[in-house]
Amino acid sequence: MERLPVTGAARVRALFTAHSDFSDITPTQYDAAYAWIQESGLLENPGHGVPAERRVFNSAMAHSGAPWLRDADLLVRGPDELPDDALRAAEVLGLSKLDAYSQINSVWGKVDTEERARIGAAGEAALLELLASSIDAHVEHVAAWSDGYGYDISVHGARHRAHLEVKTTMRRGRLTVFVSRNEYETMLRDTAWELVAIRLTPELEITAIGTVPKEWIAEQVPIDQSARGRWESCRLDVPAEVPVSGIRSLFPTLAENASELLLGTAGWSR
Predict the structure, then answer these.
(1) pLDDT in tens, the chain (270 residues)
(2) In this structure, are 99 and 201 located in the same domain?
(3) pTM (predicted TM-score)
(4) Is residue 58 assigned to a domain?
């Protein structure tokens, strides 16, 4: 078996001998652990001061593929609701339940932010492709050059326009969207603004399109209590019955061969 680099071995030993239970691992276990540590990025910036057990726990959770992690904000609301796999990892690494819970919150936040960015970009790209083949109007992806418009896609026809703020999900049973203050205030002053929900398959293909009524959004957002306090972004959990199938603001610009996803005949909650 190929010997590990001295520097790599030293780093692994620093991580895995922080707890005495790891001092007698076999060469095979050691090699497997080293390979995993390399793949998970634990060897990068080893001297930034974060305790080894916390780094290992965070990486183990982030790379675990645990199905509960993406919904941890709802499923794990306190230390006593930690799943068994997280509890076992915390116990092995000498972390308390409170420590493990705080680390889970941190890991979920990073995973959720990265996933929302990836899925959001895919949803905008998929909708732009669908619009290109379904409408008789000029389409611009304004979010590609500025996030200051308060919407992502502009559609201008001869006598009609629509400004689409696109929110994307890959889940059937949950639609969670984040609305910025700029997006909300744009909604209030721009009659062409519309929040469009896109559902994608794992292959990043559109399977459903709906719009979330402005009235519903206005009823859910926070209210500033005084001039000294101002909300800048809020999360909305949209019930399945709220989105209206299709994008009705585009109906005047749709071509004869327009997709049923845009027409709404496909249905949002099917």
Answers:
(1) 344 444 444 445 555 555 445 556 677 776 776 676 666 666 666 556 777 788 888 888 888 788 888 888 888 999 999 999 999 988 988 899 999 999 999 888 888 888 888 999 999 999 999 999 898 889 999 999 998 999 999 999 878 899 999 999 998 888 999 999 999 999 999 999 999 999 999 999 999 999 999 999 999 999 999 999 999 999 999 999 999 999 999 998 888 888 999 998 877 766
(2) no
(3) 0.76
(4) yes
Residue at 127 is within a domain: no
> C-alpha distances in angstroms, 261 versus 67, 140, 193, 201?
29, 20, 19, 14
- In this structure, the answer to whether residues 190 and 157 fall within a common structural domain is yes
Is 155 within the bounds of a domain? yes
What CATH number should be reported for the domain holding residue 170?
3.40.1350
| Residue 203 neighbours by CB distance under 10 Å | 7
Give the structural domain span for 208: 133-263
Q: Are residues 168 and 235 in the same domain?
A: yes
Indicate if 93 and 194 belong to the same structural domain: no
Give the whole-angstrom CA distance, residue 60 versus residue 82.
15
Beta pairing, strands 206-212 & 193-200: antiparallel
Q: Which DSSP category does 175 fall into?
A: E
Tokens of 41: 């990025």
**CB burial readout 140-165, b (16+ within 10 A) else e:** eebbeeeeebbbbbbbebeeebbbbb
Pair 177, 251 in one domain: yes
